[in-house]
User: Fold this.
Amino acid sequence: MRKAFIAGNWKMHKTVSEAVDLVTALKGALEGVEDCDVAVCPPFVALDPVRGSLEGSTIGLGAQNMHWEEEGAFTGAVSPTMLQGMCDYVILGHSERRTIFGETDEWINKKLHAALSHGLLPIVCVGENLEQNEAGETVAVCGGQVRAAFEDVAADRAVEVTIAYEPIWAIGTGVPAHGEDANDIIRRAIRDVLADLYDEDVAEAIRVQYGGSVKPHNVVEFLSQKEIDGALVGGASLKADDFSEIVKKGLAAHLGE
Ligand code: PEP
Assistant:
């Protein structure tokens, strides 16, 4: 059974002191929670202070993005070398990076290689927009994003990656997908594609999260699905009570309790 993995994407929220307060509250709220990987992904400037606050905790730390180059004239960018040793995870290809900042599949593939070669565990986001969903293109779009992201990634490294299926129309809208639909898309657009790229063992080993308006009241619908191993949580990760409730309920549902 794949271990549950629930991550909070704080996006461009929280000052450094607010970030430290949030993670301190979260540490207390999640004390004693085992058998689940949990991570928070604050803005870059809060990574080091949050890391300090997380000392002695099992909560992991992730960045929300990075460049693929180690250094250079890339104003405003942060490199894998800078994140190495600072965090455990890095989110790659979030739909806001793809749509607002114009990130391409090719860039995400370069970032994936760079993350893996710097000891960072990538969370690769894929997902269709509303138009693509309504045109019946979801499996083709998400499957294509998976193929492009994993190009030339060896099987023994691929299993270190987590994929987040995040339908764009569900992100920040309060309108989540249906659990069974998300499960079906993950089977057909992610696991079947991974089985084709690698083999069934790799396809079954890679963890897949659902993301898009996950809240305490709906997390069970997702984490009780066979193909869904966790959640990437945006808005509801900004409150310690909500996020810890999501982790506890989600873990119980994943374990079939
Ligand atoms: C996200 O940012 O990845 C996300 C899923 O946001 P929200 O939970 O707010 O929809």
About this structure: The chain has a mean pLDDT of 98. The pocket of phosphoenolpyruvate is lined by residues 9, 11, 166, 171-172, 211-214, 232-236 (CB under 6 Å). The beta strands are 4-9, 36-41, 60-63, 89-92, 121-126, 162-165, 207-211, 230-233. The first helix runs from residue 16 to 29.
